[in-house]
Amino acid sequence: MENYHYPGTDIQTSRLALGCMRMAGKSVAEAQAVIEAALAVGINYFDHADIYGRGQSEERFAQAFKQIDCDRDQIYLQSKVGIRPKEGMFDFSKDHILKSVDGILRRLETDYLDALLLHRPDSLMEPEEVAEAFQTLKDSGKVRYFGVSNQSVGQMKLLQAATEIPLVFNQLQFGPAHTLMLDAGFNFNMPNDFGSNRTADILEYCRLHQITIQPWSPFQVDLEQGLFMKHPDYQELTKEIQEKADQYQVSFEGMVMAWILRHPAKMQPIVGTMTPERIRHNAEGLNVDLSRQDWYEIYRAGGRPLP
Ligand SMILES: NC(=O)c1ccc[n+]([C@@H]2O[C@H](COP(=O)([O-])OP(=O)(O)OC[C@H]3O[C@@H](n4cnc5c(N)ncnc54)[C@H](OP(=O)(O)O)[C@@H]3O)[C@@H](O)[C@H]2O)c1
Fold first, then answer.
1. d(CA 65, CA 174)
2. C-alpha 178 to ligand 1 mean position (Å)
3. Residue 68 is part of which domain span?
4. Which member of 1, 101, 255, 304 lies 3.0 to 4.6 Å from 286 by CB, making a disulfide possible if both were Cys?
5. Which residue from 16, 21, 174 has its CB within 8 A of the most atoms of ligand 1, so it is best to mutate?
6. 16 C-alpha to ligand 1 centroid (Å)
7. Which pLDDT score, from 0 to 100, does residue 306 have?
8. In this predicted structure, what is the pLDDT of residue 66?
């Protein structure tokens, strides 16, 4: 698959990104092998957050990247701010955003981020304050593009109304076992649980405004229940994906990616594996042309009947 030009940016890169949440516990050599495996399959967009391993993931990434013969301007670095785990709160104040970005740049050993996302909605957000923080970061050259994560339509509109800087990403969980964004659309105006619109048309909003959705944890059921492949409720789904993978002659992980990439919203899945071979397997999905019928069969195998 050709590199893709992400709307509202000059970023032209693979449809897959590598998430570095699980890099903290790795040695420099292991992290190096992971980054090299990603680069070898054309993945040069890396997702971070200041809280991953309490900053260790960013540090480990920088230590490993230094060992690789690749310049900073050949990769894209994204990180996220706004969660304060120690204090048990979210914080979108200007002061916290600016300080956090300085910490990120120091740990990643870089002068700039390609993208900065607000990690989880802060109900005490003052949109004008965030707008000022974004403008300061943009003017200083510390951040090129901005976005959000886990935000609703209303939250995005509220923030966007305060700034002319476009929000170009929203990072949301999505995968074959986590399809809330689709279920509500299929079951609109139906008296069943699938029709309960937990995601409030965020998929359609992002498509309308050319905001790229970055699906996080594509192999997890949710934050607590782990991998769907090991979950008793998703054995049928796992079997179906494996059958399709065999049919298209790709790996299981490649078929999961192909299913996400088949959606016309042109999402950018954030793959989280720290195993070089699995990174290669995920990338196999870039070249699969999944049929409409097969896409629907995988959707339904997740236990979600169509109305
Ligand atoms: N915005 C947010 O709120 C948010 C939340 C969570 C995550 N994220 C981002 O999304 C990225 C991806 O999240 P994630 O790591 O949960 O994604 P994931 O790709 O769904 O899961 C990766 C994990 O699953 C394991 N795994 C993958 N394929 C496997 C297989 N076939 N068999 C057995 N184990 C397998 C990996 O193990 P190995 O490493 O051993 O291969 C790794 O532990 C993160 O790195 C982070 O950047 C964002």
1. 29
2. 14
3. 4-301
4. 1
5. 21
6. 13
7. 94
8. 98
Which pLDDT belongs to residue 196?
82
Q: What domain count does the chain have?
A: 1
Is the CB of residue 234 below 6 angstroms from any atom belonging to ligand 1?
no
With a 6 Å cutoff on the Cβ, whether 261 touches ligand 1 is no
11 lines ligand 1 (CB under 6 A): no
Ligand 1 atom at minimum distance from 274 CA: 39
Residue 307 belongs to a domain: no
Atom 43 (ligand 1) nearest CA: 273
Q: Residue by residue, what is the 3-state secondary structure of the chain?
A: CCCEECCCCCCEECCCEEECCCCCCCCHHHHHHHHHHHHHCCCCEEECCCCHHHHHHHHHHHHHHCCCCCCHHHCEEEEEECEECCCCEECCCHHHHHHHHHHHHHHHCCCCEEEEEECCCCCCCCHHHHHHHHHHHHHCCCEEEEEEECCCHHHHHHHHCCCCCCEEEEEEECECCECHHHHHHHCCCCCCHHHCCCCCCHHHHHHHCCCEEEEECCCECCCCCCEHHHCHHHHHHHHHHHHHHHHHCCCHHHHHHHHHHCCCCCCCCEECCCCHHHHHHHHHHHHCCCCHHHHHHHHHHCCCCCC
Q: Report the nearest atom of ligand 1 relative to the CA of 48.
A: 47
Active site residues: 52
Residue 68 lies inside a defined structural domain of this protein: yes
The backbone torsions φ and ψ at residue 282, rounded to the nearest 5 degrees and listed phi first, read -60, -40
* Number of residues assigned to the chain: 307
Low-confidence ranges of the chain (pLDDT < 50): none
Residue 93 is assigned to a structural domain of this protein: yes
Q: What is the CATH number of the domain that holds 57?
A: 3.20.20.100
CA of 5 to the centre of ligand 1 (A): 25
